[in-house]
Design goal:
The structure holds two protein chains of two kinds.
Chain A (H helix, E strand, L loop, with lengths): L1 H17 L5 H36 L18 H8 L1 H33 L5 H8 L1 H4 L2 H12 L5 H10 L12 H29 L3 H9 L4 H29 L3 H7 L8 H11 L3 H25 L6
Chain B lengths: L1 H10 L6 H7 L6 H25 L38 H16 L14 H6 L10 E3 L2 E3 L10 H4 L6 E6 L5 H16 L2 E6 L4 H13 L7 E5 L3 H4 L7 H8 L4 H7 E2 L2 E2 L2 E7 L1 E5 H6 L9 H15 L7 E4 L6 H12 L7 E2 L8 E2 L4 H13 L13 H9 L3 E6 L2 H6 L10 E4 L10 E11 L6 H11 L2 H11 L6 H5 L1 H6 L2 H4 L4 E3 L3 H4 L3 H16 L4 H18 L1
Parallel strand pairs in B: 3-4, 3-5, 10-13, 15-16
Antiparallel strand pairs in B: 1-2, 5-15, 6-7, 8-15, 9-13, 9-14, 11-12
Helix pairs in contact in B: 1-3, 14-24, 24-25
The chains are: A mainly alpha, B alpha/beta.
Chain lengths: 315, 564
């Protein structure tokens, strides 16, 4: 995809540099050829990304329903007006953002720690790197179901451990049934599962930092902490940015783990679950599309914020 | 969103739902969403069982999938007594149907239709002792015919069906309780006898998910789906996508209870052949009642609370996991069924009053008795019911009760067979009765049940109809009733001695009022309406304020009724 941007640019660049009239037709032919080669890519992007997006935006202005044979009517901003008053949707935003904040912060902190550890030289490093990825390799529906049973208040191992073995709790807690514990409990599942992935991304970033920079710093008398703050973190910034954007977007559109663990429970619905419910279960394609557009915009806000604060252009 | 979906798609391992995936290939966008769920469900059985064994807990053989509500319909949109399964006392048509059906039953019990008649040499005494809370999977001797799990009835109309031999029918079967096992046994038999290939695909155990799945198929006019189970609340919503069964199965359907036939008939089309009925009943432990000197099972909710409290207090010392009362509290269709029973048995109505001919439905969900009923049940959670009950579906309920970890349980009749099975810890120690009701109110049970329908887009309609004819035949229904405690919808089958022996409670509970969910009043919007109801109730159970949540549900239902 990067080609499509880079290629035409280079040809313009060449043209300005050579400047002469003689080469203009030649350059034009080259440009035409470039576009020709790009055409399949552009067509596919338009087909799989742009067209559905346009379609969704269009549907959000109609009262389209999945199950009915009636032609959808254009109803303007009615869906959006309802959406702004929809307490369930606002609640789903809160739940999603809360979940995203908890998971991204913990995953990043733990992931960075793990990445630094496995980046250092020790025996069995290769094995460690592989073993670490096991939670990430398990399909989410399986691990969510597994955790659901571990959290169970009557026969889950977690309660068994906390009540009978350690004795911290006097009575078992139904972690996923009670209001106060359900979001932290599900965040823990996601952190368990995704931290290895974050560590892997950051490890890749750490490995491209050349060793001689550290050597130079050591000679200059910088201690380990200074080296970390002044060398590692700044040089790791591209990797950090990619990691944070990846994880934030993933968390904002989380569906599977919530669906398996909570189902359609109202106070723990994420934006994606609420959206799925409206489109699939209620067949309300028009309203569901409006929700999709809203989610698209909300995620957009996060991306813009990241890119601005982490000064992506230097990256 | 696409990345995540793709990734999930790649993560699907091969499972029993694999064929379902393949069948879904022609579907549209949300098929992936469906697949995720199918995979979730497919896994649960094995993954969770393995997990349970690892924990050394409970009874790992019990089914672990999540499950769906069986639901139901409404007999004529009104609350009729005796619509689903129980012996009806309605005069009109009762005499003729009984007579007609009686003849059929006689042939069955005569051994003609049951190939294993010769095995009837087992001692009759064994069957007799097993009756009360006994094992329905055990051999039952009935009028010369033996009903065993491995011995399904032969296909009576095999000769007629054989003309479609070699055709392939995809059937979306069940996954709650023994559904899947029975489907497998019956489809194998049908295949043997007729040569019609049945591609058995177990549908999602949750009715809510099943509904969404069918909708995708019908929406895409998919020919991949031929025959399927239909919840009693769905005929109206799916009528236009289903074949009229009247020409071929009309006379057979006439032998069923008239109310269920009426429910399945939309604009003169019979869109679903009645298969089995359901209604909510209370299971209780006879041994524990005796141990704590309780003379009779509870008649009111307060009595239930007291008895459950007393038993739980006594039992928890030895078994910390013991609960007084378990039900279906998860946010899904089953909770709507449970809540309907709490409402109706407390004089709080049935959410929406259908009105005359359903012309002017009135939303009645928000009323003082309803608030009181919810407050009562909310008080159960964390006292006589585990806190986790707000995540329970049918299978978790069955697991708790059959594992010996509950004194009382609300469930559908299918659990009778499981609780009396060889793997149950409560075999011979339980009985069933009507759900409690407030003083002066009637005992009620939410009407549920399943029909079999044939898709209009199917390319093997005739073969599929023959399959439905077999599955819904009085012979198979009798076999399912005796071996699996499925409630028959033929009065003749309900009255037959072998069914009465294996489901003694049917007669006892004949007077329980079957209440119906507001599927007629909400029509196409039923799914959304039911979601509003179960979400509000689930919120109450996890600590919400009933008055406020019912008011909210009220206005949401008003909107749906108006939009209808």
């Amino acid at each position: 995809m990067s080609q499509q941007i880079v290629e035409p640019k280079r040809s313009t660049l060449l043209r300005t540099r050579s400047g002469g009239k003689r080469t203009t037709t030649q350059e034009q032919a080259k440009t035409r050829l470039a576009w020709l080669f790009l055409l399949p890519t552009l067509a596919i992007v338009a087909f799989v990304a742009i067209w559905p997006l346009v379609q969704t935006v269009y549907q959000s202005f109609t009262d389209a329903r999945l199950a009915s044979g009636d032609e959808p009517r254009f109803i303007g901003l009615e869906n959006y007006r309802l959406l702004l008053q929809d307490r369930d949707f606002l609640n789903s935003i809160l739940v999603t953002v809360q979940f995203t904040l908890i998971t991204v912060v913990f995953e990043f902190a733990l992931g960075l720690l793990i990445a630094l550890v496995i980046n250092s030289n020790f025996k069995g490093r290769g094995l460690m790197r592989t073993a670490m990825l096991v939670p990430w390799a398990i399909p989410t529906v399986v691990s969510a179901q597994m955790w659901k049973w571990m959290y169970n208040d009557t026969f889950g191992v977690i309660n068994d451990f906390l009540v009978d073995k350690v004795g911290i709790l006097s009575r078992p807690i139904a972690f996923i049934a009670e209001r106060n514990t359900s979001i932290p409990a599900i965040a823990a599942v996601d952190i368990w599962k995704t931290t290895p992935f974050v560590a892997l991304l950051l490890l890749a970033g750490l490995q491209v930092i050349p060793g001689d920079v550290y050597e130079a710093a050591t000679i200059d008398g910088a201690n380990k902490l200074q080296q970390f703050l002044r060398i590692t973190l700044p040089l790791l910034r591209p990797a950090i940015l990619v990691t944070l954007i990846f994880r934030t977007l993933d968390s904002l559109r989380v569906f599977d783990v919530f669906y398996v663990m909570f189902g359609n429970r109202q106070n723990t619905q994420t934006m994606a679950i609420y959206n799925q419910q409206n489109i699939v279960e209620f067949s309300d394609l028009g309203y569901g599309s409006a929700i999709s557009v809203a989610i698209f915009l909300i995620i957009g806000i996060f991306v813009v914020a990241y890119v601005t604060f982490l000064k992506v252009e230097e990256v | 969103m696409t990345d995540q979906q793709r990734e999930r798609q790649e993560q699907q391992p091969a499972s029993q739902s694999e064929q379902l995936y393949r069948a879904l290939k022609d579907g549209r966008i949300s098929r992936r969403a469906f697949m995720v769920r199918a995979a979730a469900l497919g896994f649960s059985a094995t993954a969770i069982n393995a997990f349970l064994i690892a924990c050394g807990a409970g009874n790992p053989t019990a089914t672990t999938g999540t499950s769906g509500a069986t639901t139901t319909t409404a007999a004529g949109g009104m609350t009729t007594t005796a619509a689903g399964g129980a012996r009806t006392t309605t005069a009109a048509g009762g005499a003729t149907t009984t007579a007609a059906g009686g003849a059929t039953t006689r042939t069955t019990t005569g051994g003609a239709a049951v190939p294993g008649g010769a095995t009837a040499t087992r001692p009759a005494g064994a069957a007799a002792t097993a009756t009360r809370g006994g094992s329905p999977t055990a051999t039952r001797v009935a009028g010369g015919a033996t009903y065993t799990r491995d011995n399904p009835p032969a296909v009576a109309a095999a000769a007629q069906a054989r003309q479609y031999s070699g055709q392939r029918v995809t059937y979306v079967g069940g996954q709650v309780g023994s559904d899947a096992d029975f489907d497998q046994i019956l489809t194998r038999k049908f295949q043997q006898d007729t040569g019609i290939q049945i591609n058995l695909v177990p549908g999602p155990p949750s009715a809510t998910e099943r509904y969404a799945q069918y909708q995708r198929f019908f929406q895409g006019q998919s020919a991949d789906l031929d025959a399927m189970m239909l919840d009693v609340i769905w005929p109206g919503a799916f009528a236009e996508f289903l074949v009229d069964l009247n020409p071929k199965l009309g006379s057979l359907a006439q032998q069923c209870y008239p109310s269920i036939v009426e429910n399945n008939t939309i604009d003169g089309k019979l869109v679903g052949m009645p298969w089995f009925g359901d209604f909510g009943i209370l299971y209780y432990r006879t041994d524990l009642l005796q141990k704590y000197n309780i003379s009779a099972p509870p008649r009111t909710w307060q009595e239930l609370q007291q008895q459950a409290q007393q038993i739980q207090a006594g039992e928890q010392g030895a078994n910390p996991n013991f609960a007084g009362f378990v039900f279906q509290g998860n946010a899904y269709e089953g909770l709507t069924c449970n809540a309907l029973e709490w409402f109706a048995s407390n004089g709080a109505g049935t959410f929406i009053n259908a009105g005359q001919q359903n012309a002017n439905p009135q939303v009645t969900i928000n009323n003082p008795q309803g608030v009181a009923a919810l407050n009562l049940i909310k008080g159960f959670v964390g006292t006589i019911s585990p806190r986790g009950v707000t995540t329970f579906q049918e299978d978790q309920t069955a697991q708790a009760f059959t594992g010996g970890n509950a004194a009382f349980a609300r469930n559908w009749p299918y659990m009778y067979a499981i609780a009396g099975g060889a793997e149950s810890a409560v075999r011979g120690k339980f009985d069933v009765t009507a759900l409690p009701a407030a003083q002066g109110q009637k005992n009620v049970g939410t009407l549920g049940g399943w029909q079999l329908g044939v898709s209009r887009f199917s390319r093997a309609q005739d073969a599929a109809i023959e399959f439905v004819r077999y599955m819904c035949s009085p012979e198979v229904v009798t076999w399912r009733a005796v071996v699996g405690s499925y409630v028959p919808l033929y009065p003749s089958v309900s009255d037959s001695p072998e069914v009465q022996r294996s489901q003694p409670y049917l007669q006892k509970l004949a007077s329980v009022e079957r209440v119906t969910r507001p599927s007629r009043s909400l029509g196409e919007q039923y799914n959304e309406g039911s979601t509003r109801i179960y979400q509000a109730v689930n919120q109450v159970l996890t600590g919400g304020d009933p008055a406020q949540l019912l008011q909210q549900a009220d206005s949401q239902l008003q909107r749906l009724v108006r939009r209808r």
